[in-house]
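Project standup — Tuesday

K.O.: blocked on the structure for the chain from last sprint. Re-posting the sequence here as requested.
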Amino acid sequence: MAGTVAKASPWPNLLSLSRAIIAPLFFWTIKEQLITAFIILTAWAIFSDFLDGFLARKLNSITKAGKMIDPVADKLCVIAAALALTIYDDLPRILLFFIIARDILILLFGLMITRSAKIIPVSNWIGKATVTALSIALLIYAFKISKFYDPAYWVVILFVIASSISYLSNAVRIIKNKSE
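H.V.: unblocked you, prediction finished:
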């Protein structure tokens, strides 16, 4: 019918919410060294992250809520795993600091953009690559593959710095364009 608006599917947002809900379980599985449960959670987080984006595009269900829930869910999972790996395993504190600092900066940049430009920013390719690098590094530390600790550490540091610069420059550009 003309003039009707298609209702967005709830599935993409529900998949994102499922990641937010399981985030504390990452901490628990690492603390208790429940490797099988950790693998299952990691597989679900990766699969649901891919699937929610795919379904949102395929079902034309990209929503403001989804643009906020998806990256927050990702950050909660990463921070929960990183915090547990720092407390109970070998993840260096400085790496945890970089991960949390990046996420705080992204949150602040996002709030600045949302307030001034009235849009919800979305992640870019460097941000997605950073989350992938973080996930791989966290798996390396979780499975205690010590020969890859140093490369994983430096790759994460480089990606965190690059994505932080990218998000900052994007925020400045959007705010500047909006004010012109």
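K.O.: great, moving the ticket to review. The two ends are 40 Å apart (CA to CA). The mean pLDDT is 90.
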